[in-house]
Design goal:
- The strands form five sheets. A four-stranded parallel β-sheet has the order 4-3-9-10, sandwiched between helices. A four-stranded antiparallel β-sheet has the order 5-6-7-8. Strands 12-11-13 form a three-stranded mixed β-sheet, with helices on one face.
- A hairpin with a 2-residue loop joins strand 5 and strand 6.
- The relative contact order is 0.11.
- The chain has three domains: 259 residues, HUPs (Rossmann fold); 117 residues, Four Helix Bundle (Hemerythrin (Met), subunit A) (Up-down Bundle); 48 residues.
- The protein is 45% helix and 15% strand.
- It is an alpha/beta fold and 461 residues long.
- The chain is elongated and about 90 Å long.
- Bound molecules: adenosine monophosphate and zinc ion.
- The site of zinc ion (ZN) has 4 residues, from helix 7.
- The site of zinc ion has 4 residues, from helix 7.
C-alpha cells in the first residue's frame, strides 16, 4: 500500500501520515449549522473529506469518521424567531435536506453524527474542568475562556495578537477580562432555547461543542481534524485552546486538514454575499455525480471557481465515462482492484485532478479496445477506479436518462420511447423523411439517438 501524505495546517507542510493507532483511525470534521439549505461551498468539505475517508478505509482496517450537526446557534434562533417555528422543526427539516443533498453527491455517511443538543452534559463537564483549572471565568451569566491563560494560543493560525483580536469578531463586551476571550456558555433569554447549568439557564458556545463531542467519540487526541479554511480561525484555534487546556496540554488532533474555498468570480461562495447556489438547485441542472466531479476537479487546497458552465462540462465528462461503460455493457463482467496509480495519486495529499486524469486514460484505453477479451479487464479497471472515487453509482442507461427539472424540462422517457417506435415504423415503411424528422425533433429537445446492432439507444445530451 502507498504511504499517505497530508498537508498539515499546523506545520504548513506535507507530512507522512502516522496514525496514533493503525487499527483505529479517528477523523473529526466540523459539520453544518442547520438553519437553511446547504450551498455548493458547504459541499466542498463534504466531498473532500469523503475522498479522504475512502482512502483511509482502503489503507486501514478501521476508521471512525465523526461529523457533527450544529443544531443550536444564534442563526438558528434568529430564523426560528423570523418564521415563528420551533427551532427543532427547523433543525430537523434542514438536517434531513442536508442528508438528501449530500447523498446525491455519493458522500458516504460518517460513522457517527453527533448533534450538539444531545451532548449538553459533555459540554458542561468540559466547562467545569476549564473553570477548575483556571482557564475560564464567570462574568454576567457567561462563562468565558481566558485566552491569555494559554501560553501558546494561536499556534494553528499563526496570527499576531492584534490580528487575533480584530479577527475574532467577538462582540466587545465590558465584562470580558481580555478582548480575545470567547464564550463557552452564554445565558438564554426566557424565549430562547436553553439548558439548566450551574451557571444558570443558557446554551453552549459554538467552539465548545466540537471540543466536547470530538472528545466523547475520538478521545483526548485523535488523528485528523478537518474543515474549510475559514474555520482555522477562530473556530479551530479555540477548539485547540479548550481541549488542550482541559487535557493538560495534550494536542487535540495531530493533522489539521483544510479545504480551500469554492468561489464565484473569485469571491467566496457564501450566504452573506448572496452569491451562492444551493446543492438542491444545482441538482436540477446536473446529476449529483457531476457536482461531485466539479468539486474534485481542483486540488482541495486550491480555490475552485464555480460556474454553471463548469458543471455542464463535468456532466459531459461523465457522459463520456458512462458512454464507455454503456458501449461495453455486453462484455463479460470481471472484477479488478483499485489501480495502484490511482491510489498513489490520492495518497499524495489527495491529488484528485491526477486521479481524474487517470480515469480519462482508462476510458480512452477501453474505447480503443476491440474485442471482448481486451475490453473485459479494461472495463473492470475503469469501474473499480470510478467507483472508488464515488462515481458510477448508476447504471449507464439510467445515467443517460437523467434530465434537468424545471424550465428546461424535455420529453419524458415514455414519450421518447414512443417517438423511437414511431421512427422505426417510418423507417420500415421507407418513409425516411418522417424518420429523420423524428430524429431531428428529438435532437432539438436535447435527446440524441444512436442506432446500433441491438436497436436504437438514446441519451439526453
Ligand atoms: P458552515 O455551515 O457555514 O459552518 O459551513 C460548513 C462547512 O462548509 C465548513 O467546513 C466551512 O468551512 C465550509 N464552507 C463554507 N463556505 C465554503 C466555501 N465557499 N468554500 C469551501 N468551503 C466552505
Ligand atoms: Zn468544529
Amino acid at each position: 500500500m502507498p504511504t499517505l501524505y497530508l498537508h498539515n495546517t499546523l506545520t504548513r507542510q506535507k507530512e507522512v501520515f502516522n496514525p496514533i493507532d493503525p487499527n483505529r483511525i479517528g477523523m473529526y470534521v466540523c459539520g453544518p449549522t442547520v438553519y437553511d439549505f446547504a450551498h455548493l461551498g458547504n459541499a466542498r468539505p463534504v466531498v473532500v473529506f469523503d475522498v479522504l475517508y475512502r482512502v483511509l478505509k482502503k489503507l486501514y482496517p478501521h476508521v471512525l469518521y465523526v461529523r457533527n450537526i450544529t443544531d443550536i446557534d444564534d442563526k438558528i434562533i434568529a430564523r426560528s424567531k423570523e418564521t415563528d417555528e420551533p427551532f427543532t422543526d427547523i433543525t430537523n427539516r434542514t438536517a434531513q435536506a442536508y442528508h438528501e443533498d449530500i447523498a446525491a453527491l455519493n458522500a458516504l455517511p460518517p460513522d457517527i453524527e453527533p448533534w450538539c443538543t444531545k451532548h449538553i452534559p459533555d459540554m458542561l463537564a468540559m466547562i467545569q474542568v476549564l473553570l477548575d483549572k483556571g482557564h475560564a471565568y464567570l462574568a454576567e451569566g457567561h462563562v468565558l475562556f481566558h485566552v491569555p491563560s494559554m501560553e501558546n494560543y494561536g499556534a494553528l493560525s499563526r496570527r499576531s495578537r492584534d490580528e487575533q483580536i480584530a479577527g475574532a469578531r467577538v462582540e466587545v463586551a465590558p465584562y470580558k477580562k481580555d478582548p480575545s476571550d470567547f464564550v463557552l456558555w452564554k445565558p438564554s433569554a426566557p424565549d430562547q432555547p436553553g439548558w439548566d447549568s450551574p451557571w444558570g439557564r443558557g446554551r453552549p458556545g459554538w467552539h465548545l461543542e466540537c471540543s466536547a463531542m470530538s472528545k466523547k467519540y475520538l478521545g483526548v487526541t485523535f488523528d485528523i481534524h478537518g474543515g474549510g479554511l475559514d474555520l482555522i480561525f477562530p473556530h479551530h484555534e479555540n477548539e485547540i485552546a479548550q481541549s488542550s487546556c482541559a487535557h493538560d496540554g495534550a494536542p487535540l488532533a495531530n493533522y489539521w486538514v483544510h479545504n480551500g474555498f469554492l468561489t464565484i468570480n473569485n469571491d467566496k461562495m457564501s450566504k452573506s454575499l448572496k452569491n451562492f447556489f444551493t446543492i438542491r438547485e444545482l441538482l436540477a441542472v446536473a446529476p449529483g455525480e457531476a457536482l461531485r466531479l466539479t468539486l474534485m476537479s481542483s486540488h482541495y487546497r486550491q480555490p475552485l471557481d464555480f460556474s454553471i458552465d463548469t458543471l455542464r462540462k463535468a456532466k459531459a465528462t461523465l457522459d463520456k465515462w458512462y458512454g464507455a461503460l454503456r458501449n461495453t455493457s455486453a462484455v463479460p463482467t470481471q472484477t479488478a482492484d483499485i489501480p495502484e496509480a490511482l491510489l498513489e495519486a490520492l495518497c499524495d495529499d489527495l491529488n484528485t485532478p491526477q486521479a481524474i486524469a487517470l480515469v480519462h486514460e482508462y476510458v480512452n484505453d477501453l474505447n480503443r479496445a476491440q474485442t471482448p477479451d481486451e475490453q473485459a479487464p479494461l472495463r473492470a479497471r475503469l469501474l473499480a477506479a470510478g467507483t472508488f472515487l464515488g462515481f458510477f453509482e448508476q447504471e449507464p442507461e439510467a445515467w443517460f436518462r437523467w434530465k434537468p427539472t424545471g424550465e428546461q424540462e424535455g420529453p419524458s422517457d415514455s414519450e421518447i420511447e414512443a417517438l423511437i417506435a414511431k421512427r422505426l415504423e417510418a423507417k420500415k415503411a421507407k418513409n425516411y423523411a418522417e424518420s429523420d424528422r423524428i430524429r431531428d425533433q428529438l435532437a432539438a429537445q436535447g435527446v440524441l439517438l444512436e442506432d446500433g446492432p441491438q436497436g436504437t439507444s438514446w441519451k439526453r445530451g
